[in-house]
Structure formats: C-alpha cells, structure tokens
Amino acid sequence: MLITNIKGLVGVHPKEKLSLRGQELADLPVLEDAWILLEDGLIKDFGTMDSIPAQISTLPSQISAKGRYVFPSWCDSHTHIVFAAPREEEFALKIAGKSYEEIAAAGGGILNSARKLQDASEDDLFESASARLRDMIKKGTGAVEIKSGYGLSVASELKMLRVIQRLKQTFPIPIKATLLAAHAYPQAYKNDHTGYIRLITEELLPAVAKENLANYMDVFCEQGFFSISETDELLSAGAQYGLKPKIHANQLSVSGGVQIGVQHHAVSVDHLEETDGSVLACLSSSDTIATLLPSCSFYLGIPFANARGLVNANAIVALASDYNPGSTPSGNMNFVVSLGCIKLKLQPQEAINACTLNGAAAMEMSHELGSIAIGKRANLFITRPMPSLAFLPYSFGQSQVETVILNGEVYHG
Ligand code: NIG
Ligand code: FE
Q: 64 and 80 share a domain?
C-alpha cells in the first residue's frame, strides 16, 4: 500500500531512537508533503513527494492523504480493559463528594469489580473486552498493555489472564499482559496480608509462569493497599519468574512506590499524581519510564502529575489511558493527548511523543512501534484534514482519526 500527498508524516525518528528523555521529548520530526510505502505489514520506505520514485508512484493500491497527517498508532501502555461490569453507580457518589478511598473503603472500588468478575464467564469477559478494544483501535490505538487485577483469587486472576491471551491471539495489534493480583487485598485476606502474598508467590506465580500468561508484574503500592515492603517482596518473587515490574505508584500519596520500582528496575512506574523532589531525582537518572495517566486525574478530580517537573528533571515521560471501570472509564488516547497538553502543560509535540514512542518503550516495543521508520510495523492512522498538528490536541473530546492502518492494511473493525 502506498499513501501519497501526506500533509505531514509525523514522528520520523531515527530507528535507533528507542525512547525520548527530558528535552528530547519536544523533538517530533515531521516530514511534510510526504509518501509512505507499506509492504508485508511493515514500513518499507518513505520520502517527500518531489522525489517519489517513478516505479512507486504508479503502484495500484494507493491512498491520497491530501490535507491529512499520518501518525504512528497510539501506544497505550497502561489499561485494565478486562472487567465484568462498569461502575457508574460510583459516578454519582463521586460527584456528590465521596473520594476514591471512601468508596473503596465502603466496599466499592476494586473489590466491587472483583465480586462481579468472579461470576463472569471467560467468554463474556472476552466479548466485552473485545468491544472496548475495537473502540480503542478505531480511535487510533495500535498497541496496548492489559492488566489483570479484578480476579484477586488464583482461579479468577488466571481467568483474566487467559482472556488477555485470547485477545492477543485474536486482535491484529501487539498486546502485553500484566499480572496485577496485588491490586487490593480480597475480603478474606483483609487481616491476613501474609496469606494473600503467599497465595500470589506460591500458587499464582508458578501457574502464570507455567502457562506463560504474563509479561509483567504490577503492584498497587499505596496506603491502604500494598506497602513498600509488601511491594518489595512481591516484585522479588515476580523477578524469579522473569516478570519485570510495571507498577502503580504515588497515585493517592507519596507512597515510596517510585523508589521501590526503580530499585527493581521497573520498566515503568505509573500514575505519579503525587510527586516530591526525591521522586524527580530518582527518575532523572533512571531508565524506568514515568507513565502519567491524566484522564484518571480528570475523572477522579485528583491532582495532575508534575509532567513539566519530570521532563525538566530529564526523566522519560510516557502517557497512557488507564482505561478501567473505577478511575478512568475511557480509552480515548486522543483525549489523553489533549489532557497532556491542557492539564500537564506538555506541548503538542511532547504529548504526541509521550503517547507514541515513549508509550511503546513502556511496553518494551519501541524497536518495532511508536515511530515512522523503515522496518517498523505499519500500524498507523491517517487523520481527517487538519490545519496543523496542534489541531489534534486542540480539538479535545473529538477524534481526528479517519483511517486506521494495522500491519499495512486498512482496519475496518
Ligand atoms: O489505575 N489504582 C489502581 N487501579 C486503577 C483503578 C482500579 C479501579 O478503581 O477499579 C487505576 O486507577
Ligand atoms: Fe491503573
């Protein structure tokens, strides 16, 4: 497939550029008046229209993208899209002033989702997650990470991970699976933390490893959830099974989760709505990616992460959706880019890089995704006609994505 007359081919980073740190985040190379050739699911070549080779310009399968931009697909590195039911009953409580912690303490929150998931069949979970994923893909997402964490028992966590595995086998986009059994203490283990940790380390982890069901291990390291020492123990156990950490840190308090994640060489530490100087210092010299989730702050009404501080401290910043039924009932990465600009004060170029190349890096896939380079996987989208690049985040709440291309072919969903 050949796409011609592209107003701007976005994110033509050198192929060896695998993540963007600090000031580099502002560097978003755009090739104007461009063409791109896709072959065998990969990006075969690209260039400017004035120098398009004659043998290419006559190829039969062509799309003219006049007035339109071509982007690498969004890489959404943090989601919880396998769940049994939405939780809009909590929506009204939140509006009336109840906090996320208060709702959780009253039996809502994660435990509410876990109760509903126990009874859901694998087929039903697969169907509902598929519908969410199709919707995300239509809005430009071309790679995704999905977590367990609403099972909270050996059987139900495995059920969730098997659903994620089925999604991997069914959908034409790369998917990474994360074991998040340490999302909350189930009711039965409320006063027996050691017992639940033992269940995870002695029963669940071996079973997950045996079926090769997870790429990463996550822990909700937070007051009222998992402490630093519990997180430490869980991440050490995960490492024995080859699971690298990607953890929930500093969402509701300065929890120490960032430091323990970095100590364990986490691929990413996610949320960071609460940061202090030591968090910035810790991430400034680390390869652990700071993944910020602005649509979670938007929905819960909690502070937005200090993105500028992190960029200025030379950290690697990515953005992701956090799509889940409790804190972020949306997987629209176009809105994440807008919030990245409007609320995190990232420039459009920075927010776009954070949702593409750095998002891919947060799933260890930036060698094959997240930018436009020869040999990378041809997961792209063509926008509607747009006056400029900044129009995409500027037109918040809308999707400028017109045509989705996955593995070099138009996706019809
Ligand atoms: O990333 N904070 C932990 N986990 C999710 C929310 C889970 C839920 O409320 O169901 C998050 O925000
Ligand atoms: Fe999350």
A: no
Sign of the CA dihedral 251, 259, 74, 218?
A: negative
**Residue type present at position 28:** L
Region 376-400 average pLDDT: 97
Specify whether 28 is located in the same domain as 87: no
Q: What distance in Å separates the CA atoms of residue 10 and residue 30, rounded to the nearest whole number?
A: 5
How long is the chain? 413
Give residues (CB < 6 A) around ligand 1: 109-110, 113, 220, 248, 251, 296, 322, 324-327
Which ligand minimizes its atom distance to the CA of 252? 1
DSSP assignments along 316-372, one per residue: BEEE----BTTTB----HHHHHHHHHHTT---HHHHHHHHTHHHHHTTT-TTTSSS-
Residue 333 lies in a domain: yes
Per-residue pLDDT for 106 more than 90?
Answer: no
The contacts of residue 166 (CB under 8 Å, 6+ apart) are 122, 126
Q: Whose CA is nearest to atom 12 of ligand 1?
A: 327
Identify the CATH number of the domain in which residue 198 sits: 3.20.20.140
62-64 and 2-10 beta bridge pairing? parallel
Which residue out of 115, 248, 298 has the highest number of ligand 1 atoms within 8 Å of its CB and is therefore the one to mutate? 248
pLDDT band at 59 (very low <50, low <70, confident <90, very high): confident
Whether residue 35 contacts residue 56, with contact meaning beta carbons closer than 8 Å, is answered with yes
What is the pTM (predicted TM-score) of this model?
0.98
Q: Are both 66 and 94 inside the same structural domain?
A: no
Q: Which domain holds residue 54?
A: 2-71+371-410
